[in-house]
Amino acid sequence: MPEITALKKRIFNINSPSDFNDIALEIFHFQYKNNTVYQQFVDSLKIQISKIIHLSQIPFLPVEFFKDHSIISGKFIPEIIFTSSGTTGVQTSKHYVKDIHLYEKSFLSSFHYFFGEVTDYVVIALLPSYLEREGSSLVYMANSLIQSSSNSESGFYLNEFEELYVLLNSLKEKEKKVVLLGVTYALLDLAEQFPINFPDLILMETGGMKGKRKELIRDELHLKLKKAFGISQVYSEYGMTELLSQAYSKGEGFFNCPPWMKILIRDINDPLTILPVGKAGGINVIDLANLYSCSFIATQDLGKNYQNSSFEILGRFDNSDVRGCNLMIG
After folding, report:
1. Cβ atoms of 126 and 157 closer than 8 Å
2. Residues of the chain with pLDDT > 70: what percent?
3. What does the pLDDT look like over 154-180, one tens digit per residue?
4. Which of 124, 143, 223 is nearest to 181 (CA)?
């Protein structure tokens, strides 16, 4: 499909709100036509798709559908299947990825958008619970960033805290730019056992406690990490198995999206109603990189967006699982 090939290129070259809206509408019509599950969901809402002229009118598929259905647009054999983490007995989500290059383009472009050239950094990933299972989109991303950094000191760590402490001291002395991406409980373990004063460290938390430690509200968690590492801010990554794009926070819990991703807030009592800026509600995500699955997802996260296009995560719906990279912000 030549038009889809052209659309893929346009996703990562958005330069205006109207451009985003146009591409979102094109993707909506493509997915409505080629994604049976999404089409049935939209039809069940009795929505006339011919009247949808703005992205805020597009129906958002509940993220739970990824647990029970194959959310695919078109017919294809997936290049990779990403699966969510989950506690025993909890059904996990599956994301069937037709084109892994779309994911790679998304996270590499996003890193560049927020942090600059990845080759300027030593990238360290402290992701024990993710490394110990298969199908993690976060591990795939971290591995690609490590490889793309072209730095021999980049790498993965499970629980070799002393070895990591020695490396961080060495990198600090060499004045290297370092990104330490870690699952929250492992970063806390490192902070308590091997604190290090490294003011220039980019410490980025992703995920929650995975049942390993007591959940903490964001302010308490970040204060502990700031003290242990001598840093002024804790960075965060917001992504999930069902998305191919990520938002990032450079501190204080305020996240920003790359140009091909957008957050809308829905009314928790009327899910088809999009709330104005500044009102709290359920987080809807538009991820244009999700071309071959579904780009319009209603998550189980609660949040609020702001005039400057940033957004904040306030928690989760009570009846949902705590899983994936959804931050447990209190």
Report:
1. yes
2. 92
3. 999 988 999 999 999 999 999 999 999
4. 124
In a domain, residue 41? The reply is yes
Name the token pair of 17.
């709100």
- Residue 197 predicted with pLDDT over 50: yes
Span 5-30, average pLDDT: 95
H or E segment and range at residue 170: helix 161-173
Residue 285 belongs to a domain: yes
CB of 82 closer than 8 Å to CB of 137: yes
Q: Is residue 142 within a helix (H) or strand (E), and if so which, with residue range?
A: helix 137-149
Q: How many CB atoms lie within 10 A of CB 152?
A: 7
User: Residue 214 has what pLDDT?
Assistant: 67
Crossing angle of the two packed helices 17-34 and 36-44, in degrees rounded to 10: 100
With vertex at residue 81, the alpha carbon angle to CA 77 and CA 87, rounded to the nearest 5 degrees, is 150
The answer on 308 and 262 residing in a single domain is yes
Q: Identify the DSSP state of 24.
A: H
Q: Which residues make Cβ contacts (< 8 Å) with residue 251, sequence separation at least 6?
A: 232, 233, 234, 235
Q: Residue 82 CA to chain centroid, in angstroms?
A: 13
Domains contained in the chain, number: 2
